[in-house]
């Protein structure tokens, strides 16, 4: 039985209410972020000019509390956070980080607005910073160091509509460093994969797997924790199935995990290995990709991408294996425990230095 006419009307009204509330939230949030930026600007300039000291900022917090006792967030700590917010995002060099290297639609739209504006700082704040919540901004300010890292997580928060909990996980699992590592390694080994989409390594700390586990254990644990798995990969992925059947000739073959990526408009196949990468793994992956493209892919879709998740790899072996590979593929490590962020940062610095030496 379909829905009654009354129920359809009810749903329509509920939809209107929800959409209106969302618009109100977006506008209110934008006004709030602009307010915090402007308050931070005044406090920062007064302190820099030597007109205000710490005692004056304390007096301001007390004054606001006396005049507006129900107002939250304007205590001494909150005012200094607004000051930091202004000082970080008023730096002109941050504008140079707004690029469209990996066809980022957010950056592309922002660049267009910046190019047509006489006041780039106002556009930068109103068109970018107001798109995420103050709580997410506080997380980014407290857990990142470089401007590039901050802009990365702002893009992530906007593009994937990250909740505070989801953003915190991305920060704790060093998503920036892992994505940049994947980009750097990819530029040295293969140029077939789009930048900014895939990571290396992938972190599956949510699986609670023992150090010794089988491929089936890994596959079943990922399926059981599918929501967390997709969050780790990125919200552009849609699950198509496990043990996806491919018929070639008179035989059936079964892939591990198959997804579709909405932005890339292609299937993405994850094959799981609980051992270090071996060149022969690539032959099987390419076979599956060929079968997907011949028999499953639709005419308007792009060629399928293959991701081999291995328990370790030798970069030189990977480079040799991919040198003549025609299918877009990534050989990525996976870890079942969190990695020290400093180790990933050091590895990224080493790769960056090596890249510039080879230029």
TrEMBL record:
Domain YhcG N-terminal, first and last residues per copy: 13-178
Pfam family, one: YhcG_C
Molecular function per GO: nucleic acid binding
InterPro entries on file: PD-DEXK-like_domain, tRNA_endonuc-like_dom_sf, YhcG_C, YhcG_N
Domain YhcG PDDEXK nuclease: 197-347
Protein name: DUF1016 family protein
Organism from which the protein derives: Pedobacter petrophilus
């Amino acid at each position: 039985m379909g829905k009654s006419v009354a129920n359809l009307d009810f749903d329509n009204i509920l939809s209107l209410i929800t959409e209106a509330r969302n618009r109100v939230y977006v506008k209110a949030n934008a006004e709030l972020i602009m307010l915090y930026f402007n308050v931070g600007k005044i406090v920062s300039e007064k302190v820099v000019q030597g007109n205000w000291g710490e005692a004056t900022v304390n007096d301001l917090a007390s004054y606001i509390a006396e005049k507006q006792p129900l107002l939250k967030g304007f205590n001494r700590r909150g005012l200094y956070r607004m000051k930091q917010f202004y000082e970080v995002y008023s730096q002109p060099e941050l504008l140079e980080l707004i690029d469209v290297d990996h066809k980022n639609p957010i950056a592309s739209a922002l660049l267009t607005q910046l190019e047509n504006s006489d006041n780039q700082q106002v556009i930068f704040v109103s068109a970018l910073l107001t798109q995420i919540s103050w709580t997410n901004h506080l997380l980014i300010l407290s857990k990142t160091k470089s401007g590039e890292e901050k802009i990365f997580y702002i893009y992530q928060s906007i593009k994937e509509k990250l909740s505070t909990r989801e953003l915190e996980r991305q920060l704790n699992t060093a998503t920036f460093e892992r994505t940049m590592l994947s980009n750097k390694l990819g530029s040295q080994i293969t140029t077939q994969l789009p930048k900014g989409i895939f990571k290396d390594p992938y972190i599956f700390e949510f699986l609670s797997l023992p150090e010794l586990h089988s491929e089936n254990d890994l596959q079943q644990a990922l399926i059981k924790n599918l929501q967390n798995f997709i969050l780790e990969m990125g919200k552009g992925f849609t699950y198509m199935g496990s043990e996806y059947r491919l018929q070639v000739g008179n035989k059936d073959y079964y892939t591990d995990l198959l997804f579709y990526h909405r932005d890339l408009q292609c299937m993405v196949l994850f094959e799981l290995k609980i051992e270090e990468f071996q060149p022969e793994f690539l032959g099987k992956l390419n076979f599956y990709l060929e079968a997907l493209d011949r028999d499953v892919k639709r005419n308007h879709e792009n060629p399928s991408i293959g991701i081999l998740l291995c328990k370790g790899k030798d970069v030189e072996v990977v480079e040799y294996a991919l040198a003549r590979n025609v299918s877009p593929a990534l050989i990525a490590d996976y870890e079942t425990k969190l990695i020290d962020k400093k180790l990933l940062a050091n590895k990224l610095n080493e790769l960056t230095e090596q890249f510039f030496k080879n230029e």
